[in-house]
Design goal:
- The complex is a heterodimer of chains A (240) and B (450).
- With 240 residues, chain A is α/β, with parallel strands linked by helices.
- Chain A is built from 10 helices and 9 strands.
- In chain A, α9 packs across α10.
- In chain A, 39% of the residues are buried.
- Chain B is of the alpha/beta class and 450 residues long.
- The chains are: A alpha/beta (240), B alpha/beta (450).
- Chains A and B meet through α1, α8 and α10 of A and α1 and α8 of B.
Amino acid sequence: MLESEAVQSCWRDFADVLSAGVTRVLLYGPPGTGKTFAALLHGTTGDAERLVCTEDLTSGEITGTWMPSGEGTFTWREGPGIRAWRGVEGRGARLVLDEVDRASGDALATLLAITDSPASARWRNPDTLEWIRPGPEFSVVMTSNVDDLEDVPRALRDRFPVCIRVDRPHPSAVTSLSADLRAPALAGSLGPESRRVSLRSFYAFDQLRRHHGAARAAKLVFGDQAAQGVLDALTIGAVT
Amino acid sequence: MTGGVVFPELLHGRDDEDGLRSWTIKEGSTMRGAASCNLAERVLEVPLGVGALERVVRAHELVHARVSPHAHHLESALDEVSPRALECAEELRVNTLLARLGFDVDVLRDGTEKLGGRRVAEAEVWPEGICFFIAVLGTGAEKEYLSGIRQGCSAWLPALRAVRKRAVAIFSQSTATLAATRLNDDGLPSGYAASTLVLARLLTQTMEARVPTAPEELRVFRRSLEPGARRPATGRFATLVFDDSLERTRTAGSRSVRRSRASTTGTVLRYPGRLLTDEHRRAFAQRTSSRGGVIVIDQSGSMDVERDALEGLLRRAPDALVLGYSHRPGDRGHAPNAWLLCDRGTVAATYPSGNVGNGVDGPALRWALGHRRGDEPVVWVTDGQVTDSHDHPDGSLTRECAQLVRRHRVRLARDLNEATALLRSNRANAPSSLAAFGRVGRALLDEGER
């Protein structure tokens, strides 16, 4: 079951897109499915740079900013966007933009510049006046918890030709769970928001029930009202 | 996550489908029929309250979602089992699993069972009576329902207990076996095939059975519930189902069957005795010719139709209507049990050799009588055995056929050659010849004596 799900799921699409060399991918869908986890680790060999977007995100937090050096002077510190352009020895690295639908104003304009096509993208370091371009291995994976792509700014979306809806965790993300919870955890995010059970909830439940039993763990994690429903579904699902 | 009380997405482990999908939840209630599980469209209709009954009803529908077969698996069984039997047998499987998982199935009742049981029994609707009993077996509704049955028709109770015992035996398999959704060699979920389908077959034949009341009938009924046993008697004929697929060719023969009739005028004084015995003094013979007649042929196991004999008949009576019949015991109207060997000038190129049982003797005779033209003769080729839809010989059905024979002057023949000869005569069977026609013959003799 897990194997066939793995083959058929959105994660296969993601792997295929990355292996084909596409360097701009948007992952969207319900929270708690491991989109960020996958964006950081899949299809990249080096360390990825991560940027969590908020309404207060500034342009400087993307490209870099002057920081006090402690001797009355300031030194330029590059932000994650430019660090990802450079990567190791200028080859470029993965940039992960989380919750991209929340970015606005200046930050959004800067993100558009950072995620532009390699031919157009360039940025001048205000300290060294060096022109910097993204390295050949630079790639961007954006993630968003929206259910509807319309909620992502159109200009940003246009830079990401491939958008994949992720509605379930990656099979590898559940391997640390107890065996009886792995399959339910893969499906927990499929329902509407009112009965979505995130991967994090399953991990917490798994850990708690070892110490306090399933009933108490369910109440602590899922709440009084939903606990019995979750336990009933797990019991019936495991009937053998 | 907020406020949900039912989580069908968390169910897993089905081996007969792949692809996780979300469900739509509709609010139902705890009343019977007001909760459901639509596997095809993934719609779960369940009560959303927090009471114990609401919880078990939700769990019941979740078990359906976890183990019940998809529609195409159910449809493939409908040629051999009744949909109602299948539905109720599956209810028993779900309730059995629910109880084994620790859910309190005693709360599964809505208060209508006692009255429902009494009404079903009073109306003598045995098929629904037995099916609903299976649907509530093991739940809190069982006792109430049986109480209602006792008030309506207590004679049903021994038979219901016998079926209960057999059903419990079928569902005594391990939980893993009952719940298995792995497809078997027939492409059916194995848990469903090993339990629900087995019981549904048994229920289907039991629904059609005559409710046993006498000790001997009950003994035979109990025996019929055992694996591989003969189906119980139904006391009813099956419905006539014609095979319309037979290819037909036009007959070439043109000779008529020549018959003599007693007449008040003529040139040959053939029946001088009638001058004394016949009030109309029909002592002369008048030749009449007939090109047809109706022949009904019992093609059950002991009877056969030879091609030569059929062709011989057609030479004599090219416009004859010849009906063959034989019912497959227990068939529910899917296998044809009647076919026209000859139809007023056409003959079937090939025809079935029979389906083992009789099962439709009465309906076949009635059909033939309804299709006779004028006073043309009707001949019944029979061994004198009359059986019900499960191929049990039946006294009342035999008498029913004997009455048709007597009332409509149907002639009895043992084979097609004899039938052909009888078309030429306008005489009824001599009483001395009736003994050769088994039960029907004896019934005719008994009626004659009365």
